[in-house]
Amino acid sequence: MAARYYTASKVRDKGRERYSVIFRHPIRLDPATGKPGRRVRRGLGTSDEAEAEELVTQLNMLLSDESYWSATARTNAEGRFDGRVVSAFFDGMTPAREKDSARLREKLLPLPSADDGYRRVLLLGTTGAGKTTVVRQFLGTDPESDRFPSTSTAKTTVADMEIVMGPGPFRAVVTFFPRDEIVDHLADCASKAALAALDGAGDGEIRRLLLDHENQRFRFSYVLGRRGHRPVALAVSSSSGDDFDEFDDEEPDEGAAQDFSAQPAGLVGIDLDATMALVDEAVVTLRDLVKEHEDYARTILDTNDREDERVVRELLDEELDKILRGDERFNAIVDFFLEEIEKRFYALPIGTIKRDQQAWPLTWTWETDERAEFLRGVNRFTSNYAPLFGHLLTPLVDGIRVAGPFAPLWLEGEVPRLVLIDGEGLGHTPKSAAAISTPVAKAIDEADAVLLVDNAAMPVQAAPASAVRSILTSGNADKLLFCFTHFDEVKGDNLRGLKDRRNHVLASVENLLSNFRIEFGVRSELMLRRRLDVAVFLADIDKPLDPDTQSGRLSISQFKKLLSGIEATTERPELGPARPVYDKANLVLAVAAAATSFHRRWNAVLGIQRQADVAKEHWTRIKALNRRFAEDTSDQYDSLRPASDLREFLKDEIYKTLQRPVEWTGDSPADDEALTVVINELSQAIARRLSAAIRDRLSVRPVREWQHAYYLSGSGSTFVRARHISNAIFARNVPIPGVTPSPDHNDFLHAVIAVVNDAAEEVGVELR
């Protein structure tokens, strides 16, 4: 098939003198069609029309010459074309899976390690459990005057936050999501809003969907504002009409009565009324586009012959989505919103922003000796306070690292040297028991201690239970620390004192431990019971702790106990001389069981087979996942994590096998503790290697199949895509040993055994 040639054109940015370029990329995938031809809009960084025209001419030379249509040609292009042109064309052609954000933060503000006398503590917990409040208590920040980090009863922590408690000035490094990722999510929001218009939704609902992404990670209303919310320095006006759905259904952090001294001032030159007018105009445009294209989409589908209304609706949604994304009026909405977002960065009054060649922010850095001033500046990137909507940059942040002389108010004596790592909550997905993501699994392996923060009033629900399971089977149970918050809410006529309340909470964990005993053996249960012996129980920690109150004295003593527990996690037991021996044949059974569980789950997710305990996912979410694999930018979308699911299934089954060695080299261990130490070391070594092997099976090898699945369009493509993913990708690359016919029938089995064998050699364990 002959290559399709595109041309670029320049446009003047709305309300500005500068120029941008718009073109379709001959290689990058279009989110609407799944085929090459992604729409790209990039700023040219000039207000001179002649210079802009010259840059467009250069870009058209790249677009017309196929010899430049590969990432390897970038070096040659850099010697011939302007750097802005090269960046616009080549950025995004190579996978952005390994983000530079962590590397940038490490370069600008390195994290200290155990060699420097620090302990890295990873906090895990469900939404609302209070892990960020625990962080506040360690830092000694006030919930009203400091408000850092931000908390709420809703989902608050949505970016990686690393906090170094140490001497020196207050320093911060903030990194941001790439521009293209923001563009894709803005387009997703516009598409969702348009489909809501198709259903006859009111303006308020359309506006809400337009500003906030469905997975609640990209809440652009924080940046652009919401009708009815005004900055604290301005009067708050009520919304008019019948848009009752404009009221915020999330809890602003801590409540209305606040000391605003710690809040960032409004951004200079930002007109929220103009932004809201732009949003209103977008709502009208989307309604018009839906009216214009709906009949055409139905004509293409010929839906009159179809009886299943659910099928008809899925097909109509997909076809209309594709048509809308190909309409320049739809794309103009995304462009205008992106320009409004960029204005917020240019209006920042403090700090230093480093930008890429297209002027998109890479990092924001700042340093000061003034604590209050520092917190005001950083809050712009972490806050979720509703009266500041329209002036916050929180949803655009993919990571933040701060350092400074923070200290707990309740601690007397030397301040602990801690690195606190707080990330997105375990319950930040609709499926709260979703497998631990690949980045979190890596963070668990690298941490000195893993603090599981759970709600004592509702302990060990699906998400924390899943986390404990993952920590156990990765050999990291000796890092685990249980922290039960909301202990003040544990009440009952049968609970007479603190001891009764504590035992009541621990009794709720018994079912989990009993299940682990049945599934993984007595050693695993006993190991977790020892971790529960050092569990802490915290009450009323959403305010400064008062040693004159019972809850204050309790929480202070428990925090001190927690510090001792963190220090003790670095005391790792030594491996003895004895080593277990395992039979490889048992690993075959383990791999078969894991692969069977994986296919059972994902055939249900894809709608291929029905499972009572697994819900079918909507086609838009499957396609969003498909796009990330096709572009090789991620192995997950929200709670859809096939790579993580496969990793956890394999870890579980292999961990069970490790509990049953066939014999020992040297003398058998004197007690189970020696075997537990070896199993933990071996499990860690296996877990570290599994992610790379799974990436090869699910991302690298089948990338063309992922792209083919994403290319599919038209009548029935939703269902064809699901079957293609199930058969051509999952079944072929993760075959069930002895069951699934595949040319790679034994390859997957051998790959897993190779992982276990390499790990065994590292620990000195023998496989036969």
From TrEMBL:
Domain of life the protein comes from: Bacteria
Acidic residues bias: start-end ranges: 242-256
Region of interest (Disordered), ranges: 236-259
InterPro entries from the UniProt entry: P-loop_NTPase (IPR027417)
Protein name as it appears in the record: Uncharacterized protein
Organism name: Sphaerisporangium siamense
